[in-house]
């Protein structure tokens, strides 16, 4: 596990050097980083004044080289809290792509949102 905190142990309300954070996190050589929906949402709020609008390329799955050492971001979001923000994470240069974990109780409109952005596998969990 890795996290950036202030000297007093706070994880909020301080200026985060995201490049340094990712430089250090990359030294773990992880294949994937598991990120909860609240953490992902808070990260966007801390680092962006507002969510930029989606553009046509945000609906296309990123292409990467097989030897790309960057990790995947695995976002656990069964409630659809990240709807409207997936493109923010995909645009980052810190990961290959994102994988969103959902459940049978995930709102249908969120599943459709993900499918439109080719960010979701149509396989049920029992087949993965």
What does this structure look like?
By secondary structure, the chain is an alpha/beta fold. The protein has a domain at 31-57 and 66-121. The protein has helices spanning 18-26, 37-47, 86-91, 108-116, and strands at 32-36, 72-76, 98-101. Strands 1-2-3 form a three-stranded parallel β-sheet. α3 links the parallel β2 and β3 (98-101). The longest helix has 11 residues, at 37-47. The chain starts with 17 loop residues before the first helix and ends in a 12-residue tail after the last helix. The model has no long low-confidence stretch (mean pLDDT 78).
Radius of gyration: 15 Å
Biggest sheet, in brief? 3 strands, parallel
Percentage of residues assigned to helices = 25-40%
Average pLDDT for all residues: 78
Give the strand line-up of the largest sheet: 1-2-3
> How many β-strand stretches?
3
Strand content: 5-15%
Which geometry do the CA atoms define? globular
Task: Tally the helices.
Answer: 4
SSE pattern, N- to C-terminal:
HEHEHEH
Oligomeric state of shown chains? single chain
Spatial separation of the terminal alpha carbons: 25 Å
Unreliable stretches covering 5 or more consecutive residues = none
Question: From the helix content, strand content and strand pairing, which structural class follows?
Answer: alpha/beta
